[in-house]
Amino acid sequence: MVHGKFITLEGGEGAGKTTQAAYIKEFLQSRGKHVLLTREPGGSPGAELIRGLLVDGAAYSWDALTEYLLFTAARRDHILKTIKPALEEGTWVVCDRFYDSSIVYQGYAKYVSLEILTTIYDFISEGITPDLTLILNITPEVGLMRAHKRSSHEDRFEKMSLQFHQEIRKGFLEIAKDYPERCVVVNAEEEESQIRDTIIKVILSHLF
Ligand code: TYD
Q1: CB 3.0-4.6 Å disulfide test: which of 81, 109, 120, 163 passes with 44?
Q2: Could you tell me the pTM of the whole model?
Q3: How much is the pLDDT for 43?
Q4: Which residues have a Cβ under 8 Å from the Cβ of 108 and sit 6 or more positions away?
Q5: Which domains, from first to last, does the chain contain?
Q6: How far apart are CA 162 and CA 123, in angstroms?
Q7: Which atom belonging to ligand 1 lies closest to the Cα atom of 152?
C-alpha cells in the first residue's frame, strides 16, 4: 500500500515555519504528491477547539503537566482524525509543529519529565512518527522581533522571557542531536528564498 510521508517543522517563535510549510506544499504538489498542510496545536476540529484554550492571550495558566495533557488531547484527535487517515491514503502530511514542541516547551523548558512525555506519547500516537523533522534555527532576538511584527491575539507564548526562548532554541538543537536520522537543522536567519531552497534540497535527499 502507498503510504504518505510525514514532515514536521519545528523551531522557536518567528522562525518562519508557516511560510516554509506553504512552500513545501507547493513543491511537493509540483512533484505530483497529494499534500495536506496542517498544524499543532490544532489540525482537526476538536484539536482547534483545544488550541483556543492554549494559545489565546487570556488563557488560564495551567501547570506544565496539565498543559502537556491538553496539547496531547489535541494531538490525539489530530492524529486520529487528520494525520493517520491522510498518510494511509498516500497523502504527504506537512505539519507546522508537532510532538517535538512538547518535548522542548513542556519538557526542557518547563521540566515535565521526558519519561512521562514519551510514555504518554507512545500510548496516544498510533505509531505515528515524522519521517523528516526540519528544525528552523533562529536566535530568539531575531525570532521575537519577527513574531511581534505579525498582528495576532495568540500571544500567550510569545510573552515569555528571552531566557525562556533561549531554552527553547537549545532544546530543539538537543533533539536534532538525539535524532539525527530524522532531524535536520536549517539556518532560519537567511533570506526566505534561501531557506526554501535549502529545505527543498533536504527533502529531495531524505525522502525521494
Ligand atoms: P503557534 O501559534 O503555532 O506558534 P508559532 O507561530 O510560534 O508556531 O503555537 C502556539 C504555541 O504553542 C507556541 O509558542 C509553541 C507552543 N506549543 C507548546 O508549548 N507545546 C506543544 O506541544 C505545541 C505543539 C506548541
Answers
A1: 81
A2: 0.94
A3: 98
A4: 167, 168, 170, 171, 174
A5: 6-207 (3.40.50.300)
A6: 33
A7: 2
